[in-house]
Write a structure and sequence with these properties.
- The chain has helices at about 25-35, 45-50, 55-65, 110-125, 140-150; strands at about 15, 70-75, 80-90, 95-105, 130-135, 155-160, 170-175.
- The chain has a single domain (about 10-175), classed as Aminopeptidase (3-Layer(aba) Sandwich).
- The chain is an alpha+beta fold and about 180 residues long.
- The protein starts with 13 loop residues before the first strand and ends with a strand.
- It holds the Pfam family Acetyltransf_1.
- Keywords: Acyltransferase, Transferase.
Length: about 180
């Protein structure tokens, strides 16, 4: 622990699996994610904001336990500052698909991205899935380089963006 707790990069954030009691803070983080990076996620800010709290709470409860789907958060106390999810792949039993990766702007460059991915990777290995896959919008060079630094390799596979036909996503993989 450092003595300078004023700088976000120097404060500590616990990386942990989301818990049911995190629902309100997860909702706030999800809305921030969608406002900050609208192309990176599979729903719009308007759709998420219109969803009732009990739906957020049910999703958080679902991803708080089990081997099929998990969400990890960066929690410095107070507002959540990062998120990464993992889910099974329907056709590859040894693969976890990493989704909804986000670090709030003030915490970028602090190492939280790697810690969140490490949380998903440890969960994936514990569930018997030794490989991770994620998708990045083609042209999002900042995210692409960040994932490369974390050991992800571009597979050469390109897939259409699920919501915006004019965009493509590239797939990256690494061991869990």
């Amino acid at each position: 622990m450092t003595t300078d707790m004023g700088s976000p990069a120097l404060r500590l954030a616990e990386i942990r699996r989301v818990r049911p009691e995190d629902a309100a803070r997860m909702r706030a983080l999800r809305l921030e994610m969608l406002a900050d990076a609208p192309l990176a996620f599979l729903e719009t800010l308007a759709d998420a904001a219109a969803r009732p709290h009990n739906e957020f709470a049910a999703r958080v409860a679902y991803t708080s336990a089990g081997a099929g789907n998990a969400q990890f958060v960066a929690d410095p106390g107070g507002r959540l500052v990062g998120h990464a999810g993992g889910t099974t792949h329907p056709n590859e039993p040894g693969l976890t698909v990493v989704y909804a990766v986000y670090v709030t702007p003030a915490w970028r460059g602090s190492g939280l991205l790697g810690e969140l991915i490490d949380g998903v990777a440890a969960w994936s290995r514990a569930c018997g899935r030794p490989e991770l896959l994620l998708e990045v919008v083609v042209g999002n060079d900042r995210a692409y380089r960040a994932y490369q630094r974390l050991g992800f390799k571009d597979t050469g596979v390109r897939v259409p963006h699920p919501n915006i036909p004019a965009l493509n996503e590239l797939q990256m993989r690494r061991p869990a």
